[in-house]
Amino acid sequence: MSRSGSGYELLAPAEMAAADRAAMDAGVPGSVLMHAAGMAVAEAIAGRWPRGRLLVLCGPGNNGGDGFVAASILAAQGWPVSVALLGEREQLRGDAAWAASLWTGPVMAADQVDFLGYDLVLDALFGAGLARELDGSAARLVERLAGSGLPVCAVDVPSGVDGATGCVRGVAAGAALTVTFERGKPGHWLYPGRALCGELHLAGIGMPPSVLAGMDIQTWLNDPAVWLDVFPFPGELGHKYTRGHALVLGGASMTGASRLTARAAQRVGAGLVTLAAPAAVWPVYAAALESVMVAALDDTQGFAKLLADERRNACIIGPGAGLGASTREAALAALRLQRATVLDADALTVFQDAPQALFDDIQGPCLLTPHEGEFARLFAVEGGKLARARQAAHLSGAVVLLKGPDTVIAAPDGRAVINGCAPPWLASGGTGDVLAGLAGGLMAQGMPVFEAACAAVWLHGQAARQIGPGLVAEDLVATMPGVLAALFARKKNP
Ligand SMILES: NC(=O)C1=CN([C@@H]2O[C@H](COP(=O)(O)OP(=O)(O)OC[C@H]3O[C@@H](n4cnc5c(N)ncnc54)[C@H](O)[C@@H]3O)[C@@H](O)[C@H]2O)[C@@H](O)CC1
Ligand SMILES: [K+]
């Protein structure tokens, strides 16, 4: 899936509607925005497909209005265009009624549509105004569209996809191309909506920049623009003691996991990394690690004792840690001392019986990195992925990084980022351990938690893209220098 256009700010449909209203208040008529939207759709279609028989499906609101505009423009360019309307023409209101008046050809009733005989469909049924599950004639039409096998261009979102959540409300037909306006929406980047959008094209429609600049945007696509300003680029006068000291808890049996974590923390720039492991397995770790220091833990309080040295300013606990008391004690010790703390894997599950006890101790900088299973063990929250991550951050007081193909990072203050750069070959054992190490390594260097989490996810995804299929977790660590070099170059030449 390729994505064109610029812009990493995301607006939920209700926010986009508010922007539309503000633009109108600022003196840009809705019809002007709608004409620009329809024109952008027509241009996108003409730029992508050879001229062919086009069926335009218009809905009862302004999404349908965009469809009427695009139909009129393409017909004037000589495209054979047919238009069908879901609903009654007399019921159209405002800008949509104006747009329909531009179309002088026949308008079919949606239930009369026969998909045979067309080369392409423009789906302008529902966009930002989707308010409930599709049912009845609307659902039947979208089901028939999905089953038609025809290529689809969707206006704003594929009809039935909720722009706020990416969830399908009833039914939706996948598009080859989705043309949206001014800013992307969370639903373009959250699955299943993301897969249903096909290629995403972002078109400007003349919204005054002051309108968008005046919005309190809280949701972004993961992009260095969100966090580059606070990324810890090493200073010329820096030395290892100024670049943080990450302390990683090693487990008694799954020794590879925390080694990956420690190496990732090093690679991303932590000045020093110590791996603290039970004394019985200390030789395993010590033999496998050179520049990572290995400390032997003789009891469950050992980790807390290591934290007495304040220079150990960040902790990464969980990968391969095991579900015993030592993992729990280490996590609580780090949190109580308000060290920058990453809790991953076992360090999340170990609190499943009493998550509030964990949340009560989160007073300082803390990142939780659950996958969906671990998340469900800690948080009884419902809704789309973005809303659930936000609620979890609010409830716990930690930044929550909810993993998956569309990883969401949410901060307790309401900010959230959706990641769009993780290829599917990242889904393999050990990659999460590397991610925890990258985040913790950045936090050790003083990067704020939310931005560190976003940067870690981005670096992880970029490394995976460079490696390609066949990736194993170790490759991510080895690829990090090249990814960082490209990021450093971007910092110099933004
Ligand atoms: N001036 C504007 O507001 C602009 C809006 N634009 C377009 O307008 C769209 C938003 O327009 P609207 O807010 O009118 O919303 P939509 O056109 O997406 O949908 C609203 C209509 O659908 C009906 N509806 C909602 N959910 C339904 C369901 N499940 N089953 C059956 N009917 C349902 C509503 O009753 C209403 O009639 C955007 O997606 C974009 O395409 C663009 O033209 C840019 C300018
Ligand atoms: K649509």
From TrEMBL:
Enumerate the residues binding AMP.
403-407, 432
Residues in a coiled coil are none
Q: Which GO terms describe its biological process?
A: metabolite repair; nicotinamide nucleotide metabolic process
The reply to whether ATP-binding figures as a keyword in the UniProt entry is: yes
Record field: catalytic activity:
(6S)-NADHX + ADP = AMP + phosphate + NADH + H(+); (6R)-NADHX = (6S)-NADHX; (6R)-NADPHX = (6S)-NADPHX; (6S)-NADPHX + ADP = AMP + phosphate + NADPH + H(+)
Under Pfam families, the record lists: Carb_kinase, YjeF_N
Reported EC number(s) for this entry are: 4.2.1.136, 5.1.99.6
Swiss-Prot/TrEMBL cofactor(s): Mg(2+); K(+)
The residues that hold (6S)-NADPHX are 62-66, 127-133, 156, 257, 320, 371, 433
Q: Which UniProt keywords apply?
A: ATP-binding, Isomerase, Lyase, Metal-binding, Multifunctional enzyme, NAD, NADP, Nucleotide-binding, Potassium
According to the record's subunit comment, the protein's assembly and interactions are:
Homotetramer.
Task: Outline what the protein does.
Answer: Bifunctional enzyme that catalyzes the epimerization of the S- and R-forms of NAD(P)HX and the dehydration of the S-form of NAD(P)HX at the expense of ADP, which is converted to AMP. This allows the repair of both epimers of NAD(P)HX, a damaged form of NAD(P)H that is a result of enzymatic or heat-dependent hydration. Catalyzes the dehydration of the S-form of NAD(P)HX at the expense of ADP, which is converted to AMP. Together with NAD(P)HX epimerase, which catalyzes the epimerization of the S- and R-forms, the enzyme allows the repair of both epimers of NAD(P)HX, a damaged form of NAD(P)H that is a result of enzymatic or heat-dependent hydration.
Family from the record: Belongs to the NnrE/AIBP family. In the N-terminal section; belongs to the NnrE/AIBP family.
This protein's name: Bifunctional NAD(P)H-hydrate repair enzyme
This chain's source organism reads Kerstersia gyiorum
Report which gene this protein is encoded by. Answer: nnrE
